[in-house]
Amino acid sequence: MVDYSKHEQVVVIYPHPDDESFGTSGTIINFREAEVPVTYLCGTLGEMGRNMGSPFFANRETLPKIRKQELIDACQVLDMDLVMLGYRDKTLEFEAKDEVADHLKKHIEKLGATLVITFYPPYAVHPDHDAMGAAAFEAVRKMDADKRPEVWATAISNNRDEMLGKPDIVVDTEPVFDRKLEAIKSHRSQAEGMLSKMRESSDFIGEYDSALQRLQYEAFYKVDVDQVNS
Amino acid sequence: MKAIKMEEVQQHLDEFANEPVYIHLETTNGAYAKHFDSNAHNVGAYIRNAQIQYERGKIVESDGTYRVGLKTDGWVYAEGLTDYELNEDGQLLLAGHDQVGRLMVALQISRKPFQM
Fold first, then answer.
1. A224 Cβ partners below 8 Å, 6+ apart?
2. How high is the pLDDT of residue B31?
3. Which of A54, A60, A158 has the CB atom closest to B93's CB atom?
4. pLDDT class of B40 with cuts at 50, 70, 90
5. A230 located within any domain
6. Which residue of A has its CA nearest to B26?
7. Yes or no, beta carbons of B102 and A157 under 8 Å apart
8. Which residue on chain A is closest to B91 by alpha carbon?
9. Does B31 sit within 8 Å of A54, measured CB to CB?
10. Residue of A18, A22, A48 for testing the chain B interface, max B β-carbons within 10 Å
11. Which residues of chain A make contact with B1, given a CB cutoff of 8 A?
12. What SUPFAM superfamilies does its record include (chain B) (predicted)?
């Protein structure tokens, strides 16, 4: 069991609007219910998303505005503060890691984070996920050892168990899953594709139950940034 | 966006010819292609706000989708285009989408830089 109330400030660091809702929103809700403030540092606006809808609800030029509003809506559902970092989708790995790390460190220190949640590179599949996680690890590494927040990292690669073993923390989101689903659905441009695929799948048992089957558990590895290479 | 009408797109291509324009050109099979199919690998190419000038732009139909080529000092082309729009900023957006509305290729032309 996680003692949510022992933390003073959680900072979630992911690159895309929706990373927080699919992967970590149940955990975020638990922290908020324990009255721990949570801030999302969101790297990009997901400008390069591919789902334009059928019929279309977006094109390449209108998508960032739509996803920005979805992000704001999701953060409202999750009662979480939001900082948009202003990087560009699919380019994070080409930025100078050190500069991104300094940028993140400023926010982490200003907020007084006691816990940082990010992706675990290189086990996070999307290049932005890996780059954001690596910069977040580096940001914590740059801090004085006694001031560093705890780091929890999300791994989603198919080989994660084999490479990293079992996750250290597994959160069962069922008690708060209605709100998790609401947060996910705030990202309409992203969720619709997953939801329609789910509805068509042979094991479909209703939107809530099928989504619960797929997204009930949120898993994290506790990371000592001095012990990892990325 | 709406389904490409060849004559209308050709007219817009003519309107942007022989002056400096910015282009956005991309193609991708998505960041998760390999994650979902270990035999696949992720491919993509992307350029945004490259300035070019073309002397001739031409759209060609091919089995229900379209190719557009721009003749510069070199060449620019895109294949698999299905839909288009001239947006409120006067930018010509051309894109190819699959059956479920996922963008697979885009070629866009603008007199002003695309927003960053």
1. A151
2. 77
3. A60
4. confident
5. no
6. A48
7. no
8. A61
9. no
10. A48
11. 52, 56, 59
12. Hypothetical protein YojF (SSF89442)
- Within a domain: A227: no
A positions 2-41 inside 8 Å of B (CB): none
Full domain range(s) for residue A157: 7-222
Is residue B112 less than 8 Å (CB to CB) from chain A?
no
Q: What is the CATH number of the domain that holds A128?
A: 3.40.50.10320
pLDDT mean over A31-44: 98
A230 neighbors A162 (Cβ within 8 angstroms): no
Tell me what the mean pLDDT of segment A192-219 comes to.
Answer: 91
ipTM at complex level: 0.90
Q: For the segment B12-26, what is each residue's pLDDT rounded down to a tens digit?
A: 999 999 999 999 999
Closest by CA to A135, choosing from A123, A121, A125, A149, is: A121
- Minimum CA–CA partner of B42 in chain A: A126
Q: Which amino acid is at A40?
A: Y
CA distance A173 to A148: 27
Cβ–Cβ gap B115/A56 under 8 Å: no
Name every chain A residue with its beta carbon within 8 A of the beta carbon of B95: 52, 59-60
The DSSP result for chain B, as a single string, is: -EE--HHHHHHHHHHTTTS-EEEEEEEES-TTHHHH-TT----EEEEEEEEE--SEEEEEEETTEEEEEEESSSEEEEEEE-EEEE-TTS-EEEEEE-TTSBEEEEEEEESSPPP-
Q: What is the CATH number of the domain that holds B91?
A: 2.70.180.10
Using alpha carbons, select from B75, B57, B79 the residue that is nearest to residue B66: B79
